[in-house]
Fold this sequence. Notes:
Blueprint: H1 20-32, H2 38-48, H3 52-110, E1 133-138, E2 141-146
Protein name: Homeobox-leucine zipper protein
Subcellular location: Nucleus
Family: Belongs to the HD-ZIP homeobox family. Class I subfamily.
Amino acid sequence: MNISQPKKHPQKSSKKRLTSEQVKLLETSFNFNNKLDSTRKSHLAQELGIPARQIAIWYQNKRARWRNQSLETEYKALQHRLERVSSDKNRLEREVERLKGELEKAKDLLVPSNTMNYASLPSFSSSCDDVGSSSLIGDHGDFYVCFDNHQFDHKSNGHDFFGRSMS
């Protein structure tokens, strides 16, 4: 019994490699419009002397390569943007740490050790979202301190710390 087995290597088609001039003309046509209509396909096939099916396949392959190149370009741009944002994040984190150090120095200046009653001092809040705030101007420009409104009376000992005279 002789069962015909499928061929492992099908015969190569009669498709020829494109010349550099044919590729150049196809590239120009593709750059003009990356979609191929039947009229243009027939015209290119006649002009180049190759089967219309080969032109259609070339266009399909070219669109796939074009998409891959576009994705790669977008990926590189996003990667570059991520590096910039990451660098900015690190810079801002260092700036936060520097400002925290300045805040600690300002606290030390506002609260001299061993000379004041700590119970009467304002408590500093880590967030100004729901408490009052005051701006102090120092050597480094504006400096903001948040006071807990429940523990700070800006009119203590007969003096208004915000510049209004008390009568």
